[in-house]
Design a protein that fits this description.
CATH superfamily: PPM-type phosphatase domain
Largest sheet: 5 strands, antiparallel
CATH architecture: 4-Layer Sandwich
Order of helices and strands: EEHHEEEEHHEEHHHE
CATH class: Alpha Beta
Number of strands: 9
Length: about 230
C-alpha cells in the first residue's frame, strides 16, 4: 500500500508449480480498478497449466480477452461514462524458455550475466513519443502525461496483448512490477540491488526505498529466480 492512496488496486498471481507469474495494476482514478486487477489474476489463476509454454500463454491471452469483454460490460452497466481497467504483465516458464505477455506500463525485467534488461515495452503516451523521436528518453519520466497509458485490459473493445519470448538460464532473475516501483526506483538501482542481494532482500529493499521516497502509488512486485 502506498502512502497517498486509500485503496490498493494492485493484484498479483504466483503459481510456481505452473511456471506462471502475473502483476496487475488497476487503473488509478477510475471506477473499480481493484475489481479489474482481481478479475485478471483470478481468471489467470484458473487456466490449465499442463501444456507447452506457448499454449499456456495462448490460454492466458484468451482469458485476458474474456476479462476485457466482462469489464467493458460491467462499465456499461454504470451510469455515465466509466472505464474499469487494469494493466497486466505476466511471465510463463517452460522448456528452458520464458514468454512475457503484457498490456500497459507494468513492467518485466530480466537480470542475466549481471545485466538488467527491460523485457516489456511500456504501452504509454510518452513511450510512443520517445519511439517516434518526438521526446528524449530522459524527458519521459517527468513529462506531464507520464501516467497516460495507451493499452489496458478493459480500456477498449479489442485488447491487444504484446508477447515476447527468450531463453531462461539457470540463475537468471526476473522482476515483475507495477509502476509504483519503476517510477520511483531507477533501473540502475534495481540492477544493483538484484546483483548484490538475494531475491527476498532485494524485494524488501525495493519496498523500503519506495516508502522512504513518499510512495506516491501502490507497489506490487515479484522476483523469480530460475533454478
Amino acid at each position: 500500500m502506498g502512502l497517498r492512496r486509500k485503496l490498493n488496486e494492485d493484484s498479483y498471481l504466483e503459481r510456481s508449480e505452473a511456471g506462471l507469474f502475473v502483476v496487475a495494476d488497476g487503473m488509478g482514478g477510475h471506477e473499480a480498478g481493484e475489481v479489474a486487477s482481481r478479475m485478471i489474476v483470478e481468471r489467470l489463476g484458473s487456466i490449465e497449466a499442463d501444456s507447452g509454454l506457448s499454449a499456456r500463454v495462448d490460454r492466458a491471452v484468451a482469458a485476458l480477452g474474456d476479462v476485457n469483454a466482462d469489464l467493458i460490460d460491467l462499465a456499461h452497466q454504470k451510469e455515465g461514462k466509466h472505464t474499469i481497467g487494469s494493466t497486466v504483465v505476466g511471465l510463463a516458464f517452460g522448456q528452458g524458455a520464458f514468454e512475457c505477455f503484457w498490456a500497459g506500463d507494468s513492467r518485466a525485467y530480466r537480470l542475466h550475466d549481471r545485466k538488467l534488461t527491460q523485457i516489456s515495452r511500456d504501452h504509454s503516451l510518452v513511450n510512443d513519443l520517445v519511439s517516434a523521436g518526438m521526446l528524449k528518453p530522459e524527458e519521459a519520466e517527468h513529462h506531464p502525461d507520464a501516467n497516460v497509458i495507451t493499452r489496458a485490459v478493459g480500456a477498449a473493445e479489442t485488447l491487444k496483448v504484446e508477447r515476447v519470448m527468450g531463453e531462461a538460464h539457470q540463475g537468471d532473475l526476473f522482476l515483475l512490477a507495477s509502476d509504483g516501483l519503476t517510477r520511483v526506483v531507477p533501473d540502475a538501482e534495481l540492477e544493483e540491488d538484484l546483483i548484490r542481494k538475494n531475491p527476498m532482500q532485494a524485494a524488501d529493499g525495493f519496498i523500503e526505498k519506495v516508502l522512504d521516497r513518499g510512495a506516491p502509488d501502490n507497489v506490487t512486485l515479484i522476483i523469480v529466480r530460475v533454478g
